[in-house]
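Quick start: what a row looks like.
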Amino acid sequence: MTRLTRAALRRPKTTIALWAVVVALCFPFALQLEHELKAGGFSNPRGDGTVGQTVLEEAFGEPPNSLQVVLRGEPEVIPDAVAAVREVAADLPHVVVVQDASTQPAWLSGDGRTTFVQIGFDADSTTTQNLVEGLREDLAAAVDPAVTVHVTGAPALDLDLNVQSQRDAVRAEMIAFPVLIVVLLLVFRSVVAAAVPLAMAGVALVITQAVGYAVARVTDLSILFTNGMMLIGLAVAVDYSLFIIRRYREEEQGGAPLPAALGRSMGTAGHSVLFGGLAVVVALAALFIPRIMVFSSLALAGIVVTSVALAISMTLLPAVLHLLGPRLWWKALPTRPERRREALGVATRRPLVALLLTVGVLGALALPMTGIRLQVPVASAEILPASADARQGIEVLGAELDAESLFPVQVVLVAESGDAAALLEATGRASEVAASRGEAERVLDVTTLGLPPEAVEAALLAGAPLPEEAQAVVAGLWTADPTLVSRVVVVPAQGPDSTATHDLVAALRADVPGAVPDGVRVYVAGATAQGADFDSVVETSLPAIVLFVSLATIALLTWAFRSWRLPLLALALNGLVVAASLGILTLVFQDWLGVPVNSVTPLLLFAIMFGLSMDYMVIMISRMREHYVAHGDHKAAIQEGLRRTAGLVNSAAIIMVAVFASFGTAQISVVRQLGLGLATAVILDAVVVRLVLMPAALSLLGPKVWGVRRPGRHGSVGAPGGEGSTTAPGAPSGEPALVAAGAEEPVR
């Protein structure tokens, strides 16, 4: 039992009062969290594409943010609609440029029914986002009702993503909470006992939201912080309370006085919860490795909510249980007689058969993962539901206009030496490389405008005048102020999210730098390039994340159980679960639905599931080890520990599945994939791995797996006073024994 827990039990009213003050102080800030979160985060700020885009904005004075107002109607009403949009745009703050089909003919469809007006803003993404709702309302009043209007573009997509994220979180709560209430009522058969875990979860969520608000004030935090907090927080906070209260009830029914029962519960199940929670925190910390906003935000959400849940479980929960006393079971229904779970012994009677069958099943489920294609959507807006206005605008542009030209790949060339001749030569060579690729439909740069080469050279190198009709085009492709910069615009043959366009980006990055003269720096920018940069970060970070989580898990479990075999077993079992879950996810989304698995999903699934599955393992292994320490019978220890914990683990798993599956209904695709992936992983982990594969593996590994000597004439290992010892090592005199027969040896 920790010092904090002892202090909470000595002064329960003071402990509860302190937590009440913390919640009261946090509540006002928790309500403001959603206004501080930012959409996006699915890009690498250090990537080649992002840096190249910054160069373009600085060199050509392109506005940092823009919105596209998409108009669709009969040809005769479109000109008036465009004029109405320009009038509305003129009244908006931060507008620096407004363009339409009058200067960009490609922005009008062949039948004259579809066009768009682009509004450029000299403001950051958040400021532009805040203008979107007002713009939509003004356009609805100003444009002829016969014209369909959509406002899209990155800020609009971000706004709609933010709104949808909040709706998804509310929907998940509406689905998850009724299921949690039913499960807790079935487990405890008492309204009061069922209400306690939910109250603990509520406290954890309020404090986490307040911490998120404080962090978001000083650094960017993704809107997915809220989803991650709910996804992980509801699961761990309720499960931790469930584990402790269930053990408390068991000790009480075994005849222990309530104070002693609570002390034993905190010293056994409480210690298991502490180490299970630490495993979650350690696994999620690995998500900081990529240094990407979306991963860091989700990691922070999980770490904060799990840490708060642990603090609550070690202090507030025991204080509440102490004060409630027998009232915890007020008007509780009679406990059902425990049924013998004979089926649970099959894994120990025929361990090799059980192991081979379950490994074979999990391996077969994991097989589709070998063909997984990870890709973050960059311009399809598929991350949003079909009803979102920004997505509808993107889809109209893609269907009615030349979508490929709207999202070109751009080769950015910078003459570091200030040599204009070298830059012109580099532009020509880069253009040739791009034109030679079959994935490119057409290429535009200063060398492909149809002007005589000598006229281009004279204009760019000696300042000779250009034909008036070519001046504006050249000014958008070449600049000498403040730095010599040229760009090659490559229109891909397929859409920005296609495999072919991704291959085009990879080819340009591989071939262009070697083709240009020394002193010319090359970047490949554009939506597809930025998406490829993000995917690349995920792929390169994966080995480091796996290594970090594996080493941390080995260290934590070795410290907890004094056994090196159990950590290795944990790695193998968790790896099988994650692989099988990803295989199912690949089969459903990629093979059946034809949707690529989002690059974010595997890393999050691995880190979250690896941590959460430790809860089950620590709880079950601790109970098995307890029996082995007391009686020295290896197979009986596995069977008894399994019998004692199988129902508890199943109840906890139902809670987690309910929470995760509720997020599987989310309209944001990455949240939906993650929710369904985690729900699948928990089912496999609780039903297949913990009830069959783990006991079979433990049976085959033998007694040495426990990391302790067999009990002998000197009494139970860890209880120096022998079987009659009533005080745990290092515990103050009078504290209930935690290692005597019938009590679980505490996880160290």
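That is the whole record. The beta strands are 65-72, 95-99, 114-121, 148-152, 409-415, 440-444, 478-479, 485-492, 520-525. Residues 712-748 have pLDDT under 50 and may be disordered.
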